[in-house]
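Posted in: Structural Biology > Protein-Ligand Complexes

Title: Requesting predicted complex, uridine-5'-diphosphate in pocket

I'd be grateful if someone could produce the 3D structure tokens for the following input. Sequence and ligand are given below.
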Amino acid sequence: FQTVNVLGVDFINTTNHDFLTQLKADSQANKNRFVVTANPEIVLAAKQNPQLATAIKSSDYTTADGIGIIKGAKILKTPLPERITGYDTMCALLDWANANQKRVYFLGAKPSVLADLKKKLAQNYPDLVIAGSHDGYFQDEGPIVNDIKQAKPDFVFVALGFPKQELFIANHRQVATAIWMGVGGSFDVLAG
Ligand code: UDP
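-- Reply #1 --
Done. Output follows.
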């Protein structure tokens, strides 16, 4: 994708439809991918936090997740077509994973939310292969990273809030050839 720079971050210039087509192709081709869905809060935080800025730069796709980014791009006369949110992208990928026997790992949120999420997944995505899951309140990353590795997931959704989730993915994405995406509060939303 071509990109549009807003306040130092390069956003992919594409639609939800074309982005999903790309992610599905990447998954079929066994690519390792890191998706950041960035809102203005993240862009500003990256200005203060060099480690986060480096993590975002290391992503394969940074999407405009927030009307502020869309407005900023318009003002800069390099418009972006629409928002691409973590929640919408995750739900579309779950649909596809459900239909294509792809393995999904869920990392993050409170244990009770994760339990509710699994019930919702069973209802909404009955054929989904849950490769593994772990709540987001752990001390030691090592065992979690090892669990993800053993699970051999095709998709890893990480709901630790920003910037934790982006730093986690940037540091550990090599353990699984998967599409990795930080999804913020999406587990809570989907769990209802
Ligand atoms: N979260 C977590 N571990 C933490 C901090 C947050 O698993 O150490 C989870 C939290 O339970 C929620 C998600 O991260 O499910 C998103 O949190 P928040 O809404 O604060 O982040 P944002 O949506 O602003 O990225």
